[in-house]
């Protein structure tokens, strides 16, 4: 694999490329660091008593169900949180299983590339999204996160690391999505990436009946375009009530211009509300991908975090 840096960033502005470092030594270092992380994972697995419950010691999680307290130490995943390499020519990334989408996107955007499906919370990991499934505003054209996995290394219950792909351990490869760790843990994943433009132009379409929203959504999914023929790259459906719902349609664009910022005082979900017809907005691709993260969709309200004074802190 050639670890090129900016080969596909043709339309991206210069600041897109900030942080892209010289590839050769960094790539070797990243691979060595990953190999070291795998060794630490295996050592922690071998150190478990034979009867111990096996679980991951992850710094982040999006599981909210209560879990039994487990005395045994979790597996050491500390060395599996990195992006190992981005191959801008092949449009693929090799990624540690516990790498968050925040870190993954930060590594791919400087190349003008993004994962095919980016979940809306920064702390979701690639391994978690693939094994727990996920869905996003590109899913109508790119499917679910596991559908862009080309191959993955899995720690199995036998304490071995196996590489699974459509041709190698193909049964494990097919069964892994939605297995929630029961078939093993993803240690490294190679995923496809897609080119992205620096900005997303948004149109928020108001509906007064859910049936009308569904009909419009079906047409977009079928044709990949709005009724006027405009290509659709991103598609969210947001329902406030039976009488108030929206389709938030995004189109990638390289055209520069003013952009909105919903990481401070302004709140994204409120920005889409209006009485009738369509409104328009623009975000950088980075802010588009994380549009729901600042306010955890709308859940931040429950913690008082939508109050203007609290937001200033
Ligand atoms: C509030 C909320 C919002 C969400 N929003 C979105 C969204 O916008 N888009 C979306 O696609 N999904 C969303 N999800 C679903 C989320 O993608 C899944 O819950 C995903 O499994 C969480 O991944 P995680 O990395 O946080 O894993 P965890 O929460 O830590 O673990 C989830 C499960 O996956 C297993 N697991 C974790 N890592 C691995 C691994 N490397 N290999 C094997 N098994 C592993 C764990 O054992 C556990 O069973 C949301 C979930 C919540 C609770």
Describe the secondary structure blueprint for this structure.
Blueprint: H1 23-46, E1 56-57, E2 75-76, E3 83-87, E4 92-96, H2 101-108, E5 113-115, H3 126-132, H4 139-142, E6 149-155, E7 161-164, H5 170-175, E8 185-195, E9 199-207, H6 210-223, E10 234-241, E11 244-253, H7 268-271, E12 278-284, H8 285-289, H9 308-312
Parallel strand pairs: 1-2
Antiparallel strand pairs: 3-4, 4-8, 5-8, 6-7, 6-8, 9-11, 9-12, 10-11
The structure holds flavin-adenine dinucleotide.
Task: Give structural notes.
- The chain has 2 domains: 182 residues, 2-Layer Sandwich (Uridine Diphospho-n-acetylenolpyruvylglucosamine Reductase, domain 3), CATH 3.30.465; 100 residues, no CATH class.
- 32% of the residues are buried.
- It has 313 residues and is α+β, with helices and mostly antiparallel strands.
- The longest helix has 24 residues.
- Flavin-adenine dinucleotide binds next to helix 3 and strand 8.
């Amino acid at each position: 694999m050639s670890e090129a840096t900016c080969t596909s960033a043709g339309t991206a502005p210069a600041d897109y490329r900030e942080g892209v470092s010289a590839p050769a030594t960094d790539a070797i270092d990243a691979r060595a660091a990953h190999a070291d992380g795998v060794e630490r994972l295996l050592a922690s697995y071998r150190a478990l008593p034979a009867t111990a419950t096996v679980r991951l010691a992850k710094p982040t999680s999006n599981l909210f169900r209560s879990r039994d307290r487990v005395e045994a130490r979790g597996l050491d995943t500390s060395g599996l949180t990195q992006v190992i390499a981005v191959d801008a020519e092949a449009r693929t990334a090799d990624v540690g299983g516990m790498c968050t989408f925040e870190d993954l996107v930060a590594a791919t955007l400087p190349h003008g590339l993004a994962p095919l499906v980016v979940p809306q919370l920064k702390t979701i990991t690639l391994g978690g999204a693939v094994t727990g499934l996920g869905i996003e505003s590109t899913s109508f054209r790119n499917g679910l996160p596991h559908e862009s996995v080309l191959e993955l290394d899995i720690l199995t219950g036998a304490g071995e690391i196996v590489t699974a792909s459509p041709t190698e351990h193909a049964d494990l490869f097919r069964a892994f999505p939605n297995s929630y760790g029961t078939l093993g843990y993803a240690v490294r994943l190679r995923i496809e990436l897609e080119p992205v433009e620096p900005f997303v132009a948004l149109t928020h379409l108001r509906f007064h009946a859910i049936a009308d929203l569904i009909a419009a959504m079906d047409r977009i999914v079928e044709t990949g375009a709005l009724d006027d023929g405009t290509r659709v790259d991103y598609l969210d459906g947001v329902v406030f009530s039976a009488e108030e719902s929206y389709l938030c349609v995004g189109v990638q664009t390289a055209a520069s211009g003013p952009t909105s910022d919903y990481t401070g005082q302004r709140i994204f979900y409120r920005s889409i509300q209006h009485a009738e017809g369509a409104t328009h907005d623009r975000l950088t691709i980075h802010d588009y991908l994380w549009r729901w993260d600042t306010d955890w969709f709308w859940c931040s309200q429950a913690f008082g975090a939508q109050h203007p004074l609290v937001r200033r802190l």
